[in-house]
Each structure stands twice: as structure tokens, then as C-alpha cells.
Amino acid sequence: MARTVRAVQGDTVDALCYRHYGGTKSLVERVYEHNPGLSELGPILPMGTAVTLPDINTPPSRARVQLWD
């Protein structure tokens, strides 16, 4: 089920995607497709802008890599 969030001061669509999905790869474009007219607001969203985040199955994050044992 899609979720609607509101932008806070200085928010961008990629920041919203990162907070909600945990990444931005191919997600920002899908959010723009799901929200017609959102791109016309500019790169920094006005405070309080409602953005609908569609259900997207994101792959689980990979295991953490350590440089030293």
C-alpha cells in the first residue's frame, strides 16, 4: 500500500527515498512517475509537500564489509 509523507525543510525526493526505502537506485524515478507534477516544484520541495511513496520491493541490504579482521 502506498504511503504519503510530507516534506520537511530542505527535503528532496532522493532524501525522502533514502529515508523510506534505504536507497535511491531507480527509486527516485518511480516516485516521480507516481506523483505527476512533483518535478515542477524544483529540486528542493516546499515544506509540507505531500509525496506519495509507492510500494516498491527493495532488495535486502548486503552484508557489511570490513577492511580489517
Automatic annotation (TrEMBL):
UniProt xrefs under InterPro entries: GpX-like (IPR008861)
Top-level taxonomic group: Bacteria
Name the UniProt record assigns to this protein: Phage tail protein X
Organism the protein comes from: Kushneria phyllosphaerae
